[in-house]
Write a structure and sequence with these properties.
The protein is α/β, with parallel strands linked by helices. The protein is built from 16 helices and 13 strands. 39% of the residues lie in helices and 18% in strands. The strands form 3 sheets. Strands 1-2-10-7-8-9 form a 6-stranded mixed sheet. Helix 9 links the parallel strand 7 and strand 8.
């Protein structure tokens, strides 16, 4: 399996990642003592979750059963929800290697379209990466193609580990590195590199609650299939972590945490507003664990924290929903039901009250049929966008209108449908 020496050797194929300090997070968002540094590998052509050097290193070290030239002509294949597929398609095009990618039906359209634009043969199959991978490995149609595992091939893990080397080169005094975890390849490679060079630096993996495959593997003692439901972090929705990656990450990573859809949506919103960065759900998972309410928020106070923002591939339509749902999670977009007079001016009185409080109505709907308590009243359902960022906006409106802000749901409703 990958060693520290193989990580160093893979630097010859690496494309540098950039570490950026964020002054904004130093004093805002309830984290006055926190020094935040973002890793920005998402600015490349593929904007992929896995750093591009991982895939380039894999191509250069491709395990070929016949001959290098013959395998190059035959091509390679992979199963991916999009990010691994994008990086593979991009480098395959650059190196003249045919690439076939099997993508599950949950793969965002933006990722599918870009893979095709890079010249890959895209096959849509299965409800998740596991089902797509099974077809790629068993269908006679793909016989002869070299399968490249996006999170478990030793070459991929070693290539991902170069990110850990570059983090410590740019910030040797780092206290925490918080890494998104799906198949665990990025976590494994980076943790191996970081803990080898600086054992005191804590390396934490973060996975979505809706696909907690690394936690399931820890509890079982080996990779097992974890229950998976649709998540904003689609790039991390790997039902079963890689066997090689799990062994390395279990040994070198300090801990694994889970984040919910509310935290992910809010992290994406914070990055758009504060850093002017569009980051997909999987890429924002590390930050989601650090924000107030996240599992690492208290632990990282006063520390130098590095967070890879590894992925910028998100559909525009999904981004619009995420912004709305992030605002709702932040209680800046609220919904309530109010009873107003069914006489002329009833709705006008409600809208004036909202305007006086600085609110902007996003949607309003009123109905008569389902209100049984009074024949002279009408029920108004309002989605209100606060005119400011104050979280007590709904509270100020409530005494006047009987408004009921967004209730805390029993189940997380943020996943796009």
């Amino acid at each position: 399996m990958s060693s520290a020496s193989s990580l160093v050797a893979s630097r010859s194929a690496a494309l540098a990642t950039h570490l950026s300090a964020s002054g904004w997070w130093y004093w805002s968002h309830g984290m006055p003592a926190l020094r935040m540094f973002f890793v920005l590998p998402l600015s490349g052509c593929s904007s992929s979750l896995q750093p591009a050097q991982a895939h380039l290193h894999s191509f250069l070290k491709l395990p070929i059963p016949i001959s290098s030239e013959e395998q190059r002509k035959i091509g390679v294949i992979a199963a991916s929800a999009g990010n691994h597929a994008l990086a593979l398609a991009w480098h395959g095009k650059q190196m003249g290697i045919p690439v076939t990618v099997l993508m599950p039906t949950l793969a965002p359209l933006a990722k599918v379209s870009r893979c095709r634009a890079f010249g890959a043969n895209v096959v849509i199959h299965g409800a998740n990466i596991g089902e797509a991978k099974l077809l790629a490995e068993t269908d006679p149609e793909f016989a002869g193609l070299q399968y490249i595992n996006g999170y478990d091939d030793p070459e991929i893990v070693a290539g991902a580990g170069t990110m850990g080397l570059e983090i410590l080169e740019q910030l040797p005094e780092a206290d925490f590195v918080v890494i998104p975890c799906g198949g665990a390849g990025l976590l494994a490679g980076s943790a191996l590199a970081i803990k080898t060079l600086k054992p005191t630096c804590r390396v934490i993996g973060v996975e979505p609650k809706r696909c907690a495959s690394f936690l399931a593997a820890l509890e079982a003692g080996e990779p097992v299939a974890a229950p998976t439901t649709p998540t904003l972090a689609d790039g991390l929705a790997v039902p079963t972590v890689g066997g090689n990656a799990f062994l390395v990450a279990r040994e070198y990573a300090d801990d694994i945490e889970q984040v919910g859809e509310h935290e992910i949506a809010l992290a994406m919103l914070r990055l758009i507003e504060s850093e002017k960065l569009v980051v997909e759900g999987g890429g924002a998972a590390g930050l989601a664990a650090i924000l107030p309410g996240g599992p690492l928020h208290q632990e990282v106070q006063g520390k130098r924290v590095v967070v890879p923002l590894c992925g910028g591939n998100i559909d525009t339509t999904t981004l619009g929903r995420v912004i709305d749902r992030g605002l709702a999670a932040d209680e800046r977009l609220v919904r309530f039901v109010a009873q107003v007079s069914d006489q002329p001016g009833g709705i006008a009185g409600l809208t004036k009250l909202l305007a006086d409080e600085g609110g902007s109505i996003k949607d309003i709907y009123h109905e008569r049929a389902w209100l049984q308590t009074s024949i002279s009243n009408v029920q108004a359902k309002v989605n209100l966008l606060g005119g400011t960022t104050e979280r007590d906006h709904a509270g100020r409106i409530d005494p006047h209108s009987k408004a009921k802000p967004n209730p805390k749901p029993d189940s997380d409703p943020l996943t796009p449908t």
